[in-house]
Amino acid sequence: MNDALPTVISRNPADPADVLLRIQAPGAFTAVDTVERARAAQPGWLLAGAAARSAALGAVAAAVEAAADELAALAVREVGKPLAEARAEVARTAAIWRYYAQAPFQPAGEVHETAAGPGLLLTRRRPHGVAGLITPWNFPFAIPTWKAAPALATGNTVVLKPAPGATACAQRLAEIVQEALPEAVFTVLPGGATEGNALVSAADVVSFTGSTPVGQAVARAATARGIPVQAEMGGLNAALVLPDADIEQAAAHIAAAIAGYAGQKCTATSRVIAVGAALDPLREALSEALRAVPVGDPADPATVCGPLIHEYARDQVGEASRGLSVLAGGTVPDRPGWYAAPTLVEKVSPGHRLLREEVFGPVASLLAADDLAHAIRITNSVPYGLVTSVHTADLNTALTGLDLLDTGMIRLNAPSTGVDFHLPFGGSKASSHGPREQGRAALDFYTAGRTYTLAPAGSAA
User: Fold this and answer.
1) How far apart are the C-alpha atoms of 422 and 103, rounded to whole Å?
2) What 3-state class would DSSP assign to 20?
3) Residue 232 annotated to the active site
């Protein structure tokens, strides 16, 4: 073993002594070689035709469904995802593969008349080549899938660099996918920043999900090379609660969006903005709802809030709420693993880190707004703009303010968490860079448009 290369280690966050995986990172040269092997395989994958690509993606969907229990258990063990959420993620993963299995038969262009004279004008979308995918640990099957499936459907090959803490999940997903695909069409590249940087330097199109600083660096590097890039990054998402809202329902939705999977989702709610008379009843209802959230072993089907991914993440939750007025939580459960109680704080000063940075844990601030316009200003005041949930019984009021929210997604009377994989996903400002992902938008991202002019032989230039 080459001691110069770092070791990739993946631990069970509910039981840190349980090591799932310990392997040597492959290094930059191996990463580039992996891309070259994928590039050599790409023409054959494309020329195999739409039916072959559709059948392969459909076979992956069926195989994921067949291995559902095993995959869910692996997500519970490696990334601490509560069992109910792990099962839902695996089901969504299969559905995404099946959704994109139909994509190879979609039109790849259009035919137009020329402005003058005989001939035809054609537009056609073609794959870029090798898609380099860099994915986080929090959705270890779904995020690699919603990037890889559209890339493969449109004729690209894929090299996936997962977060080190989700390497075992990525490798198991790769085993399933590789059973249905030709060699080197889908490859997992384990490792850290060295391998990720090498992948960005060699791939033909890059899709990233992760932290804002790293995503911005990836976007700069890919843009400098002139290749397409998308980066889905942080969120500091708000839930707006108007006085006419069903307060109990809103509290239940918001508590789930704060504490579900220990707040480790880019769509989690981290700011709760109560408008006018909604403040006092919401304070009571939300505090009670958060105190009632089941915290514990992610393998227990009743658990909603399991462990955080590592010790540092757990410590950040406590540090962020220190010195504030705590309405719920603010404690660390006395048990093995990296747990933190779902936390709600208030009286947060405008410059506090909770109102500027994404903590990525089960902690949220309760804020007061005079009216809807004030709530919108508070919502828009942060560097991020991924998703906002709005809770009200008055659709007219909601529609008045929805277009003024500077976020890519808006959910009415629903938690901020939750993704419809057949629609575009993405935000504004520091939350996203480049085109949207998921749905049909992904098919456009993983292809390049070409315009062809077909003139009859011998026609005038």
Assistant:
1) 12
2) strand
3) yes
Residue 413: what are its φ and ψ, rounded to 5°? 55, 45
How far is residue 151 CA from its own chain's centroid? Answer: 16
- pTM here is 0.95
Residue 259: what residue type? A
| Residue in the structure block whose two tokens are 């986080």 | 136
Q: Which residues contact 251 (CB under 8 A, 6 or more apart)?
A: 282, 285, 286, 288, 289
pLDDT in tens, 102-145: 999 999 999 999 988 889 999 999 999 999 999 999 999 999 99
305 catalytic, yes or no? Answer: no
Q: Catalytic pick from 85, 169, 266, 305?
A: 266
Closest residue by Cα to residue 190 from 30, 60, 82, 43: 30
Amino acid, single-letter form, for residue 42: Q
Q: Which residue type, as a one-letter code, is found at position 4? A: A
Q: What's the pLDDT tens digit per position in 70-114?
A: 999 999 999 999 999 999 999 999 999 999 999 999 999 999 999
**Could you count the other beta carbons within 10 Å of the beta carbon of residue 35?**
23
Residue 230 CB contacts under 8 Å (≥ 6 apart), including other chains: 206, 207, 208, 426, 432, 433, 434, 435, 436, 437, 445
Say if CB 427 and CB 407 are below 8 A apart. Answer: yes
Given the residues 232, 346, 358, 437, select the one marked as catalytic.
Answer: 232
Exposed / middle / buried, residue 107 (Cβ in 10 Å: 0-12, 13-18, 19+): exposed
